[in-house]
Amino acid sequence: MFTKRVFAVSAAGVLAAMFSGAVASAQPQDPVQAMAEACDEGKLCVWEGANGQGKRVDFYVCQWEEVQRHGLSRVGSFVNNQTDGTVAAFHGPDPANPTGPWIEQYRSTAFEIRDDDRGLGTYGIQVC
Q1: Is residue 1 domain-resident?
Q2: Which one of 36, 47, 90, 98 has the minimum C-beta count within 10 Å?
Q3: 2 in a domain, yes or no?
Q4: What pLDDT, on the 0 to 100 scale, is given for residue 6?
Q5: Res. 42 pLDDT band, cuts 50 70 90
Q6: Which residue from 78, 105, 111 is spatially nearest to 90, judged by alpha carbons?
Q7: Is 12 inside any structural domain?
């Protein structure tokens, strides 16, 4: 009789998990929440597209990086999940002088999520 009770509870648990999974998958996940959940602590996660879409590269070493060397065409969105207070600097062409040298376009202080590139062509990152 004890075995039957354990099985009954287990079956009920499986059915509840299956039902709750079906309900959860019916609702689209917020892209910003999905980006935050995808980026491990201590990393700067960069996606090629807005809202965490497309290819992704995770950086964790404090050095200069050009995203094209990692298979991305540009920085489209990112999560700065490095140690709180760590600053990453993003670089690309000056909109006023697109053929000139790259400039620092913006900075990000951890923890921060940016879901689009704000219309900038960003290609280089000083990770921290």
Answers
A1: no
A2: 98
A3: no
A4: 33
A5: very high
A6: 105
A7: no
Using pLDDT thresholds of 50, 70 and 90, give the confidence band for residue 28: low
| Per-residue model confidence as pLDDT tens digits over 79-128 | 999 999 999 999 999 999 999 999 999 999 999 999 998 889 999 999 99
Stated pTM of the model:
0.76
* Extended strands (E) in 20-127: 43-47, 56-59, 64-66, 77-81, 87-94, 97-109, 112-114, 124-126
Q: Report CA torsion sign: 3, 7, 10, 12.
A: negative
Structure confidence by residue, pLDDT tens digits, 62-79: 999 999 999 999 999 999
Q: Are 88 and 70 in contact (CB under 8 A)?
A: no
**How distant, in Å, are the alpha carbons of 7, 14, 24 from that of 2?**
9, 19, 33
Tokens for 116, please give them.
């689009």
- Judge whether 64 lies within some domain: yes
- Residue 35: domain span: 30-126
Please calculate the CA angle 15-16-22 and round it to the nearest 5 degrees.
90
Tell me how many domains the chain contains. Answer: 1
In CATH, what number is assigned to the domain containing residue 63?
Answer: 2.60.20.10
